[in-house]
Design goal:
The protein is an alpha+beta fold and 318 residues long. The chain has two domains: 148 residues, Aminopeptidase (3-Layer(aba) Sandwich); 155 residues, Aminopeptidase. Helix 1 packs antiparallel against helix 2.
Length: 318
Amino acid sequence: MNHNPAQSHIHRLDPRHDLEQVADLVELCFADTLEPDGRHYLQDLREAAHNARLMGWASTLSENSPAPLSGYVWEEEGKVIGNLSLIPIRAEGQRCYLIANVAVHPDHRGKGIARTLTHTAIEHARSRRVPAVWLQVRDDNPPAVHIYRTTGFQERACRTTWNSTAPPPELPAVEGLSLGPRRTEHWPQQRTWLQALYPPALDWHLTFDWRVMRPDLWGMFYRAFLLESVQHWAVERRGRLAGLLTWYRASGSTDPLWLAAPSQPDESALLHLLSYARQSIPLGRPLSLNLPYAYAAAAVRAAGFHPRQTLIWMEHRF
């Protein structure tokens, strides 16, 4: 790592002294995009900060702590004005790092702080001999995208998260289109489509559990063990499978839907599938869909969903 005067402002995160300031900085920088899960995360950070001060255990913390208590901060005159968290993950079966919570105080942007923090994180990961570092960046943040692309990150995916914001539409029946529960014989095609829409390289973030999906006896026992109630729906056009949708209760602020459909989707069929499924799902909690950018966008929007954010998934390999 090249040494320069800027490095004197960077130090490893010390939870006893830095975590509360980091929480304040993250809240300031991302106030317009924070949702219930994000606010819960900030609450966890502040609780961790309180525990660290109370117990004085910062020196014993591991990078594998449940909260992201590893990373780097940029400090000036005793104030944290920049932050970068490093979170261990497993991507494609290998230990890697995720860069997250990159935040710079609005009064100090444009000075190269985020770029220097990123370089520092890359060197940290390199010293740990991991094969790669990952991150996610919003597509509407071109300065950050530029920083990451010019520090060696390559785009691996671009995905949009959709949240339900309107009631499902009432749609008239369409000749040749049939809707109903998933059948056992649908599973091989569903699995193939799911692997394309939710590729294994991204499973470090997508909370996708194949075992919950399986229609066989093993899958039934697994769902019973977890007390999971899972529902699947299918749409066919003139007897040919056009798409499947899965829902089950999640612990976050929204319940995810998992869509399985071909790379060239039948958007009319998917609109009917989404509307049909939404009318069958118990009311009370919002729903979310995570899909490749622009995939079946017209159908998803017409089914009462709104794009919450589009993230570019990037990887830096060593």
